[in-house]
Amino acid sequence: MNNFTFEARHRSILLGGIVLGLICLALTFFTDDALHTRFWTNYLHNASFFTGVSFMAMFILSAFLIAQAGWYTYFKRVWEAQSLFMIVGLVLMLPVVAGVWLGWHHLYHWADAAEVAKDEILQHKSSFINPVWYTIASVGVVGFWWFMARRFRGLSLKEDNNPSINFGEHRKQITLAAIFLPVAGFTSALVIWQWIMSIDAHWYSTLFAWYSAVSWFITTLCFTVLILIFLKGRGYYPKMNTSHLHDLGKYVFAFSIFWTYLWFDQFMLIWYGNVGEETVYFQTRRDEFPLLFFGNLIVNFLLPFFILMRNDTKRKLGSMAFVCIVLIFGHWIDFFLAIKPGAMHTAHEALHHGHHAAEHAADHAHDAAHGAEHAASMIAGVHYPGLLELGTGIGFMCLFLFVVFSNLSRVPLIAKNDPYMEESEHHHIEPPYSETF
Question: DSSP of 239-263, one letter per residue?
Fold first, then answer.
């Protein structure tokens, strides 16, 4: 079968997950503090995470096109479908952008002009960390990514209907990839700095953009594996074999090690330099979020390392599915840990200043008591994900998968006229010989 049917029951399941996410967001908003910080951090966490996963699908396609790889061609439509989620990601980020301009949230310390005026560090960074650049990153850059993804998809479909002896459409895709890759490298750093690193506005790291991008990269590969297992189990991609799965497993294994290298490198250099503006980032997370800080390494490094180290494990559906599910959750937690501490600190400072502006001591006492009670009740949404965070994450994931499967159902699953299709259909690694799964 070369045409995917998005069945009604699968639509219903994913729509149910989306509704669950909306309910959790609504509950978070109406049970949150006066600044709705838990709501906005949950929203930014998931919107940025899944938009980045979509971007990485486009990045992977471009890298393999430039490398003239052939093994992935049989299922490249899955990455094309994932990349088209970026327009949804752009729309999802619009409320956050509006909130920066209109003061709807206190996610970013630099968005408060009064705070910038009395903060020398923020003044030095204000030429880059400001609402204008944030809007450029969220709308201009993501819009460009989506435009390029649409161009890739268009050329790929045109190739289906226009076989050419000189592979003209494929050459255009390679040219487009050569343009996109270097631009993507720089703009992804811009987006990550604006969306996530600027939450801790006094902090800086030259490795953080790489670190976050690799987290997106691994998550994209994991979603790819799970989607392919799902499709294969329903009779699609009959020529897909264990060698395809093995190669995807090798990338998951290798980049999990690379992610760990970046994690350790960033931590070691900042620890060794012992600069206050840098060390506070890790000190806060180590002291106040120890469960997530140390669990991050266990989930995102030790588990995939020991499970995927064996060559045959990368060919087993159960092992690959388990590792990929764990890693998706683990890197989702990684973004939670990157966003929550800084944003919560900014909101706390805003509330603290508001309390000091109050005129009556009784009001101060009431606010302090309320704040203490709120902190105790909201710990599940601050120091580790609570049920509302998990429900919101499931909702965004279901939205992502709904968009991906909808895009898969609109076009043939196999790009029949791609010049590397025959190589991909007969892809095998020795030993052992490839088997269908």
Answer: T-BHHHHHHHHHHHHHHHHHHHHHH
- The token pair at 142 is 């993501």
Average pLDDT over residues 77-100: 98
Domain count, the chain: 1
Q: Which domain holds residue 375?
A: 8-425
For 290, other C-beta atoms within 10 Å of its C-beta total 11
Query: How many Å apart are CA 220 and CA 246, to the nearest integer?
Result: 16
Mean pLDDT to the nearest integer, 318-340: 97
Nearest CA to 239 out of 425, 31, 409, 415 is that of: 425
Residues 1, 313, 212, 274: what is their CA dihedral angle, to the nearest 10 degrees? 180
State the Cα–Cα distance between residues 45 and 334, nearest whole angstrom.
Answer: 10
Return the minimum-mean-pLDDT range out of 50-54, 294-298, 342-346.
342-346
| Predicted pLDDT of residue 387 | 95
Domain membership of residue 366 (yes or no) is yes
216-242 confidence digits (pLDDT tens): 999 999 999 999 999 999 999 999 999
Tokens of 35: 């600044």
Does residue 431 form part of some domain? no
Lookup: tokens for 119:
């903060």
Contacts of 300 (CB under 8 A, 6+ apart): 218, 256, 259, 260, 327, 330, 331, 334
pTM check: above 0.85: yes
- Looking at the domain assignment, is residue 266 inside a domain? yes
3-state class (DSSP) for residue 159: helix
How far apart CA 358 and CA 362 sit, in angstroms, is 9
The pLDDT tens digits of the residues spanning 340-380 come to: 999 988 876 765 554 443 444 334 334 434 443 433 334 67
Asked whether residue 326 is assigned to any structural domain, the reply reads yes
